[in-house]
Amino acid sequence: MLLPKDVAATEGRTAFRLFSFLLLLAVACILTVPMHTSLVIRDSQTQKLVWSSRLGEQGEFSIRWTHSIHRSAVEEHYRAADGQLILSEMTFHDYGIGMENELAPGEELVIANGQFLLRNMHRVFPALHLFIGQIRANHTLLLAGQEIPLHLVALPGAAITIKAEKRSIMSELGGY
């Protein structure tokens, strides 16, 4: 027969165990449930993560590279939305081989400050696949005021995939 004192102690332990379990469950969810969007770069062959950074609220970033024929800078402006990458604008100095020669409906090509500006673009990509330039391309990621040369992220000539992914705190800590 349980005394009232024993019943109170048993109920207290049960409540503590339930609280502990729920707290542990909440922490596990916070750590493992994807909560924020990050821009990630993976090795295209192995899918191994080589670089990752959280995207700001607008999800904007750019890639600047040097055109192999014109040897002038090209800058592509993207934003991430719903796991997709959307090319929204492009600037370049020389119009010719390898550059856009047709506009999609609604797009505009203007000349401003001595360069071409292709704006009002809405070209959607699930990911960007690119080989890091070995000679002069100098691919550079522009994100949150930082310039990140991609040859520092992976070797020149390496095939990489750039994507927007929902990431959890645990995936950020573990690097997968």
- Estimate the global geometry from the Cα principal axes: elongated
The H/E string reads: HEEEEEEEEEEEEH
- What is the residue-mean pLDDT, rounded to a whole number? 83
Question: What percent strand?
Answer: 35-45%
Strand and helix layout:
Elements: H1 4-32, E1 36-43, E2 49-54, E3 60-66, E4 73-81, E5 84-92, E6 108-112, E7 115-119, E8 123-125, E9 128-131, E10 140-143, E11 146-149, E12 159-167, H2 169-174
Would you mind describing this structure in some detail?
- The chain has 176 residues and is α+β, with helices and mostly antiparallel strands.
- It contains two helices and twelve strands, in the order αββββββββββββα.
- The chain has helices at 4-32, 169-174; strands at residues 36-43, 49-54, 60-66, 73-81, 84-92, 108-112, 115-119, 123-125, 128-131, 140-143, 146-149, 159-167.
- The strands form two sheets. Strands 3, 4, 5, 6, 7, 8, 10 and 11 form an eight-stranded antiparallel beta sheet that branches.
- A hairpin with a 6-residue loop joins strand 3 (60-66) and strand 4.
- The longest helix is centred in the first third of the chain and has 29 residues, at 4-32.
- The protein is elongated, with a radius of gyration of 25 Å.
- The protein starts with a helix and ends with a helix.
Summed up:
It is built from two helices and twelve strands. The chain is an alpha+beta fold and 176 residues long. The strands form two sheets. Strands 3, 4, 5, 6, 7, 8, 10 and 11 form an eight-stranded antiparallel sheet that branches.
